[in-house]
Design a protein that fits this description.
Two copies of one chain form a homodimer. Chain A is an alpha/beta fold. Chain A has 14 helices and 17 strands. An eight-stranded mixed beta sheet of chain A has the order 3-2-1-4-14-15-16-17, covered by helices on one side. In chain A, helix 2 runs parallel beside helix 3, helix 3 packs parallel to helix 4 and helix 12 crosses helix 13. The longest helix of chain A has 18 residues. The radius of gyration of chain A is 21 Å and the shape is globular. The mean pLDDT of chain A is 96. Chains A and B meet through helix 1, helix 9, helix 11, helix 13 and helix 14 of A and helix 1, helix 9, helix 11, helix 13 and helix 14 of B.
Chain lengths: 452, 452
């Protein structure tokens, strides 16, 4: 058993001083007691918070960070960015993917993310053929998670067609295409790779409405009895127009009417929704998976956040393309998009409520739900995903209670994180992942070769 | 003489390998040679860039970072934030201001800002009376700049009235009010405090249209024959409405028609402009002083950046309220606001142009102009304000040429900065200001006392 003691810690009931947390050998919390002095043998920390789920990741895209900030031939958009991404992934070997994913997960952990939803679509060999192990690439993701210690919810992607109306996949999509039948092999292969990973979870991810037919979407979700289902939806206005032209329905509307969207579902982006869609998604029990930094970088647009939270919707955040991996920045940019649109401040809260705490608690609950990981709160029975902050950090000087969260989210960044435990295993100490150096060295070698 | 050598460095002509930079004892660059090997005795670095001006700062507000992220009584806005700011500044002594400013300037330098435009309005004692030295507070700013080494352009603020139409200043504005006559004493006092500061510059800052009369604005600018003139303009829509009701003109329109706005001027924010105002400001030779992080935090709105740069306008950036001090984030948020509004990417550039380089070079030129500091380019005769980046930083792995800038601006932060020289004096080494520890300790003691 591990015992931690915090001078102050955010419990589901609020900030509490003198908290002792006992962690059982299975990585779950066995007891939480406030108002205590540090027990003998306990590791002592100043400030404790629950670790946050990063609910949307395409790990290999971390290698592209900074490579796509060059203007394209005409009006530059998501769709020109996608061409850069296709060219980049053409070159990647399984070893490359493992090296990039490990670096990414180190960065996530150092930022305070304790679990990741890996929306994994790079399945096949460069020629489009299956690897001997159909889940070779999924296995590399699992290995990166095991080596770094991040909590993993693996979401193998079903990519059944190249575009709406049964359009065949293009040459540049050959590494992620499968049929509904062959997708089953992928999912079972991925399940085997998760066997050695404590508290890992398996879900599925139909890529988007444009990448499935109504029949294949029904087949893959129908064959998957439990576990989370993630799908990209309504990220780009062109996607909304295409879906309207194809079905007479907008993407979120179509999914709610035809796909059985409910509490197992996470709709990634959900940027472009009417008021009716916003209320319907909030009422469905699904999670909106927001990626504010990527959505800003790709020029997607601004999520209708105030209306959605006002209707009781669940949300979480993910770093998606990983152009930047920072928990605090992800949450503040979610808030800043709303502020800029509404020309207002502290847009989500009621009088006296801290914006940082409201954002963090919403993302903790929504992220845990979307990844089906019993986390996001420090309480008995939960997985022990815990973050400690540095009370001497420049953004936290003299901070108490919710001011700690506001300082971290609005004035801070990953350098405020001093220690991180995932399922009770300490993976970040003094702000650095315990294996940062060899993992970064391998990543550097990999990137030098790819970009040479 | 100091000699630096860089494996690669951004010159006005572009990225150049093997650059030797000679710095004279007066802190200016005496020679720059590309294609060289490191001379004996030279300090060797990997990546060099010009240091950037932070053109808009209210230093004491750094102490408020994270304190105002709590929802107010009704629709929360800039105007409720201002109430928090007024309460905070009520308590500050000259010693407090020096301690906070020194911490702020350390953070700026560590982020790669090498000079600051201090828009300084906290002049008087808590009871509203003058200090024995009318420029006591200005002297504290100068001391903080001297101790930390940041380049200073000091802009004492003229705050002549409480609101449009000759409204008297309110009780909570008592620490910054002066008449046009007494303002002259402040300016002369500030000039004396700058005597010991190498390359420091004195300007003036009429606070905003609402804080001056046409007559007093004419008097203070007329009495100040050279040096920069900065003014807040069109940050908030309410301010635009008030100015229209008062004069029949919008703020930027009014300033261009009545105040002689030209190359000495810097209009801070300039957020809300018509197309005609945008073109007129661009053509005036003035600099638009943008503060993207603060403008997002305060819910101001989005600057018409593409139209303004398209019309040939000059711009620079400042961290204003200092809710967060990071050069890379300031520039990327400038770009992201445009992308979110236009639902497009790489909005400023022509085909093949790096967004990071375009943003950085625009801000280097505009910032140097707004502060009247011969900097922003590494060339003979310029002040030696230089930043070195860490080639092993996670955002810069395997980067060359403009990819270095894109990596820093879009994927990086202050942790990518490894060394900084201001006027040839090395003030940041291995990512840390040389006096970070004592300055932070004093700041922490100050904040604990203020917030107790």
């Amino acid at each position: 058993m591990t015992t931690l003691h915090f001078d102050t810690l955010l419990l589901p009931t609020g900030w509490t001083d003198g908290v002792t947390v006992d962690i059982a050998s299975d990585g779950t919390i066995s007891a939480v007691r406030g108002g205590t002095t540090p027990p003998a043998g306990a590791e002592r920390q100043a400030i404790g918070l629950p670790g946050l789920a990063n609910l949307h990741s395409h790990a290999f895209q971390r290698g592209m960070a900074g490579l796509a900030e060059v203007a394209g031939p005409s009006k530059d958009s998501f769709w020109t960015w996608r061409q850069v991404m296709y060219r980049f992934l053409d070159r990647l070997t399984p070893e490359d993917v493992e090296a990039i994913a490990a670096e990414l997960y180190v960065e996530m952990l150092e930022a305070g993310f304790t679990s990741v939803g890996e929306f994994h679509y790079l399945h096949h060999a460069p020629d489009g053929g299956w690897y001997d192990d159909p889940a070779e690439m999924a296995g590399r993701i699992a290995t990166a998670a095991l080596k770094t210690g991040i909590g993993l919810t693996l979401l193998p992607v079903f990519y059944g067609q190249g575009g709406l109306g049964g359009k065949p996949t293009e040459h540049q999509q050959r590494r992620f295409a499968s049929s509904a039948d062959s997708f089953g092999r992928l999912v079972e292969g991925a399940r085997r790779h998760l066997a050695g990973l404590p508290h890992a979870r398996l879900g599925i991810a139909p890529h988007s409405i444009r990448a499935v037919t109504p029949e294949s979407l029904g087949a893959v979700t129908g064959a998957f009895a439990d576990g989370p289902i993630h799908i990209h939806a309504a990220e780009q206005t062109k996607e909304v127009e295409d879906c309207l032209a194809w079905s007479g329905r907008r993407p979120v509307e179509w999914l709610i009417e035809h796909a059985g969207v409910g509490p197992r579902w996470c709709l990634i982006h959900a940027t472009h929704m009417t008021e009716a869609e916003t209320v319907a998604l909030a009422g469905s029990g699904a999670v909106a998976g927001l990626c504010p930094i990527t959505e800003a970088n790709l020029g997607d647009g601004i999520f209708p956040g105030t209306a959605y939270l006002g209707a009781g919707g669940a949300l979480g955040v993910g770093s998606d393309s990983h152009v930047r991996v920072d928990l605090a920045e992800e949450l503040r940019l979610l808030e800043y998009g709303q502020r800029l649109r509404d020309r207002s401040r502290n847009v989500f809260g009621r009088e006296g409520q801290s914006s940082g705490r409201l954002l963090l608690e919403a993302a903790l609950a929504g992220g845990a739900k979307a990844l089906q990981r019993p986390s996001g709160a420090i309480e008995t029975g939960a997985v022990a995903d815990i973050v400690a902050l540095d009370p001497e950090h420049r953004a936290l000087v003299a901070a108490r209670g919710d001011r700690i969260i506001d300082g971290w989210i609005f004035a801070g960044d990953q350098t405020a994180v001093s220690a991180v435990w995932v399922a009770g295993r300490k993976v970040v100490a003094e702000g650095r992942h315990v294996d940062r150096e060899p993992i970064r060295a391998r990543f550097s070698r990999t990137m030098r070769r790819i970009l040479a």
